[in-house]
Amino acid sequence: MPTLYALKPAFQDRLRPLVGKLAAMGVTANTITILAALLSVAAGTAIAALPAWRAPLFLIPIVLFARMALNAIDGMLAREHGQASTLGMYLNEICDVVSDLALILPFAAFAQFGARGVVAFAIAAALTEFAGVLGIAAGIGRNYAGPFGKSDRALALGVVAVLAAAGFWPAAIAPFVFPAMATLSLLTAINRIRAGLIGSAG
Questions:
Q1: Geometric angle at alpha carbon 196, from 119 and 178, rounded to 5°
Q2: Nearest to 153 by CA among 127, 129, 181
Q3: Exposure letters 148-170 (e unless 16+ CB within 10 A, then b)
Q4: Which of 163, 188, 191, 195 has the fewest beta carbons closer than 10 A?
Q5: Is 9 exposed, middle or buried (0-12, 13-18, 19+ CB in 10 A)?
Q6: Rounded to an integer, what distance in angstroms lies between the CA atom of residue 175 and that of residue 117?
Q7: How far apart are alpha carbons 201 and 175 in whole angstroms?
Q8: What does the mean pLDDT of the chain come to?
Q9: pLDDT recorded at residue 53
Q10: Is the confidence at residue 54, as pLDDT, over 70?
Q11: Cα torsion at 187, 188, 190, 196 (round to 10°)?
């Protein structure tokens, strides 16, 4: 099922000159991976610490875009500049989940969305990535199947953050936003598990 992940090659092409310069400067993929996670944690902490203020929510789309760029950069440094490593693989997957949790869970502080729905989405997002990683054990490789992969979650969360910051969420709809995203995430996890089962059976 197509997802925004299909746009990644074109995005990487735009970043390739910068990646070459970073590699020449001695910047490592693992450093970029950790930087992306720290950026997400810092933004999430700021939002959670100021629940009475909606303005910090505008940080979410900015950080999500920066994180997407940094994730592309660390992958290119690893693959195209000989920096791939087992440590890098662990850091990449763990930091992705940490970043997701850091940017999703602060929404639980906003009563309009409902803490349970937010937590459900955070758990479902983590399960989706776990199911994707298990594709390696199933013999089909890291699975990025949709309909609600990492890039799609980032776009949806960014839209939610901007609308919430601007005060545009109707009270009747807000409680259903995160449960809906949790449901899409679970469907994505199921698709990834199904792909692994079909692949391993073949």
A1: 20
A2: 181
A3: bbbbbbbbbbbebbeebbeeebe
A4: 163
A5: exposed
A6: 7
A7: 40
A8: 92
A9: 87
A10: yes
A11: 160
Cis peptide bond upstream of 147, omega within 30: yes
Q: Which amino acid appears at position 126 of this protein?
A: A
Structure tokens at 70: 């940094």
6 pLDDT exceeds 80? no
Q: In 3D, which of 157, 169, 199, 176 has the Cα closest to residue 62? A: 157
Range 24-38 average pLDDT: 96
Tokens representing residue 103 in the block: 């940017």
Predicted local confidence at residue 167, as pLDDT: 87
Alpha-carbon separation of residue 75 from 30, 79, 85, 88 (angstroms): 9, 6, 11, 9
Closest by CA to 136, choosing from 89, 173, 170, is 89
Q: Using alpha carbons only, how large is the chain's radius of gyration in Å?
A: 17
Is pLDDT of 188 > 60?
yes
Number of CB atoms found within 10 A of residue 93's CB: 17
